[in-house]
Design a protein that fits this description.
The structure is a single chain. Helix content is 35%, strand content 25%. The protein contains 13 helices and 18 strands. A hairpin with a 3-residue loop joins strand 1 and strand 2. It is elongated. It binds zinc ion (2 copies). This is Metal-dependent amidase/aminoacylase/carboxypeptidase. InterPro entries: Amidohydrolase, Bact_exopeptidase_dim_dom, Peptidase_M20, Peptidase_M20_dimer. Keywords: Hydrolase.
Length: 421
């Protein structure tokens, strides 16, 4: 007998989306910063606990938690959501907009917003948990759900693993994850190979010698040194990297001095690097070090500059075999709403660590959150890039429908694909 179609199977679960809509709005109006996702994790775990059957393991790597549904012999499939919000003041004007403020790890009070859609990820994963439980007669294996903290800092997945995630839940055969993106709501995109870039961030401190603004000859001016360095760094991508390779070097912050007539003694730069190929990444990192040190020497600075890496996200590389199986399933269910060759993006994720740390394959896909008529209007006007707020914008506001249903369906179909219907 041929297996039931995904559409026929999912229809039998009868999920009440209203409950999930309320949950989403609650999560959206109560965001928490990275490593402070206490209430978020408690809300999600309590929501899952009400289903029964899931074994819940709390406080892994901070506020992360995992849940296991043992459903007979077979493969172990892991589905992942992240939990954290961002230090951004929400300006969407939504009735359920966040007004939350929290003190971050540096001790500064910040406005907080779910500007990356992790609230939608949580909601979709909980919805999928209910559907897969309802459909348990149709599949066999072990389902592991991971709710990960601190994605935005690039540290949460590793923190969960370092805290014994895989001693506390079964090691998965397959690892699956998804992210909401500025695409048409209802659409889904995946691709084999690299779907997201690697990201590396650095803090650079240049030391000069401070003094009076009227006597620059008695100082080593870190403002001039930093200015030269910003321009010099532009040469890495334009002059040192093969134009066929993807590479980004952004100086995202530059701080020095407080007064017009004072030459200060140091300057700080924040650098962001994106790459896809490891050798390109290594070249960029080496070039940054070379230029920072050379600029300091060229300026006659006595004290050596300091470079500290503040973030690292690996490349998200979709396993080819897994992607092929998943794309066949998504094509069956979503039809032309699924793009099997969605463009790679240069944002980054720590999701792959959940699989690569165990030598297991993984696949990650995108689903759209932009209200379909708005999307079509902006596409027709050629204004998608200018006028559709992207993730991390203060105006980021996913349409609830059909975004939520699409995210739930995609997770269920992903899991069922690797359990075998
Ligand atoms: Zn984000
Ligand atoms: Zn995100």
């Amino acid at each position: 007998m041929a297996p039931a179609s995904f559409a026929a199977l999912l229809r039998t679960a009868h999920l009440d989306l209203g409950i999930y809509e309320d949950l989403y709005k609650h999560l959206h109006s109560h965001p928490e910063l990275s490593n402070q996702e206490k209430e978020t994790a408690e809300t999600a775990a309590a929501f899952l606990a009400r289903l029964g059957d899931y074994e819940i393991v709390r406080d892994i790597g901070g506020h992360g938690f995992a849940a296991v549904l043992r459903n007979g012999p077979g493969k172990t499939v892991l589905l992942r959501s992240d939990l954290d919000g961002l230090p951004i003041k929400e300006e969407t004007g939504l009735p359920y907009a966040s007004t939350v403020r929290q003190v971050n790890q540096e001790g500064e009070e910040k406005p907080v917003m779910h500007a990356c859609g992790h609230d939608m990820h949580i909601t979709c994963l909980l919805g999928a948990a209910e559907v897969l439980l309802a459909l348990r007669a149709s599949w066999s294996g072990t389902l592991v759900l991971v709710f990960q903290p601190a994605e935005e800092r690039g540290t949460g997945a590793k923190a969960m693993i370092d805290d014994g995630l895989y001693d506390r839940v079964p090691v998965p055969d397959y690892v699956l994850g998804q992210h909401i993106m500025p695409m048409r709501a209802g659409s889904v995109g995946c691709r084999p190979g690299t779907i997201m870039a690697a990201a590396d961030s650095f803090k650079v401190t240049l030391f000069g010698r401070g003094g009076h603004g009227s006597a620059p000859h008695r100082t080593v001016d870190p403002v001039v040194m930093a200015s030269n360095l910003v321009v010099r760094l532009q040469n890495i991508v334009s002059r040192e990297i093969d134009p066929n390779e993807m590479a980004v070097v952004t100086v995202g912050s530059l701080q020095a001095g407080h007064a017009e007539n004072v030459i200060v003694d140091h300057a700080e730069l924040g650098l962001d690097v994106r790459s896809v190929t490891p050798s390109v990444r290594d070249h960029i990192v080496g070039a940054i070090k070379r230029m920072v040190e050379a600029e300091s020497v060229a300026s006659g600075a006595k004290k050596k500059p300091v470079i500290v890496q503040t973030r690292h996200f690996p490349v998200t590389d979709n396993d080819k075999g897994m992607t092929e199986s998943l794309s066949a399933s998504f094509t069956e269910y979503f039809g032309n709403r699924f793009d099997p060759n969605t463009p790679r993006v240069n944002v980054a994720e720590d999701f792959p660590v959940l699989a690569s740390s165990q030598g297991r394959p993984s696949v990650f896909w995108f689903f759209g959150g932009v209200e379909p008529s708005l999307w079509d209007e902006k596409v027709a006007a050629g204004k998608v890039l200018d006028e559709i707020p992207s993730n991390h914008s203060s105006l980021f506001a996913p349409a609830l429908h059909p975004t939520m249903q699409t995210g739930i369906d995609a997770l269920c179909i992903g899991a069922l694909t690797f359990f075998g219907r």
